[in-house]
Amino acid sequence: MASVPRITVVGSANVDLVARCERLPRPGETVTDALFECVPGGKGANQAVAAARLGARVRFVGRIGTDDLVLRSLEAEGVDVTGVVHDDGEGGVALILVEASGENVIVVAPGANRRLAPEDVNVGDADAVICQLEIPSAAVAKAAEGARFFCLNAAPARGPLEHAPDLLIVNRYETETVGAYPGLVALTLGADGAVLLEGGAEIARARPPRVTAVDGTAAGDAFCAALVVGLLEGRDREQALTRACAAGALAASRPGAQPSLPTAAEVDAILSA
């Protein structure tokens, strides 16, 4: 295996306000008896924590508001937060409803994430840079400029790609918005696993281990981090994809965003079971 991967994640940091209910409400309907919790989240911060738990050396770059819940979580995982800009305004907030089946709906108020500027972005000396689309396009472009290997998780999708990543990660809905991409693409298929495409042709496919879904909030973030870590560790593409599916499944089997993210040992265990 190669040396410890060095990854810089440039992205969002949110406080997740989560209500767990028996079923999601229909438009105009109120449901009650929900359980509420406040947990650290944001796709960028989630992917940074996930990569750290999977054994990478991680730097996080983003804007965090006056609530330091996410910052404390990153620090607790050993993530380098010297690239964090402390914003005097409100930080990002995600409103998340999760029903008993694990299905969720999410609305994000970006707050400080919306103000991440190109001059805030310094990716440092990293083997790979991971970005998502919960931050401004100009910040994503700056991150891509300084990357040896650039992974873009096009979530939430917002139209045709403005950048040409070395690895594009999308789900079924996001690929409809982004359109066809000729490079390396990981297409996630939920319970059906994921497919790796290159030049539009399938080069690898993997299915996740069977788990009971509890909360899918950070499953995609676990998948992204595990795939990049696996590739940087020198694993072949099918093995890296298999580990990414396992990481996503483990995250979906646990409540919360960052609390649900698995370690490398947990991925090894479920794959050997």
Helix and strand content put the structural class at alpha/beta
Number of strands: 13
The unreliable regions are none
Counted by DSSP, the helix tally is 7
Coarse morphology: globular
Notes on the protein architecture:
49% of the residues are buried. The protein is built from seven helices and 13 strands. A hairpin with a 5-residue loop joins strand 11 (184-188) and strand 12 (194-198). It is an alpha/beta fold. The chain starts with 5 loop residues before the first strand and ends with a helix. Helix 1 crosses helix 5 (219-232), helix 5 runs antiparallel to helix 6 and helix 6 crosses helix 7. 27% of the residues lie in helices and 29% in strands. A nine-stranded mixed β-sheet has the order 5-4-1-8-9-10-11-12-13, with helices on both faces. Strands 3-2-6-7 form a four-stranded mixed β-sheet.
Topology:
Layout: E1 6-10, E2 14-21, E3 35-41, H1 43-53, E4 57-64, H2 69-76, E5 80-86, E6 92-99, E7 104-109, E8 128-131, H3 137-145, E9 150-153, E10 167-171, H4 172-178, E11 184-188, E12 194-198, E13 201-206, H5 219-232, H6 237-252, H7 264-272
Parallel strand pairs: 1-4, 1-8, 2-6, 4-5, 8-9, 9-10, 10-11
Antiparallel strand pairs: 2-3, 6-7, 11-12, 12-13
How would you briefly describe this protein structure?
With 273 residues, this protein is an alpha/beta fold. 27% of the residues lie in helices and 29% in strands. It starts with 5 loop residues before the first strand and ends with a helix.
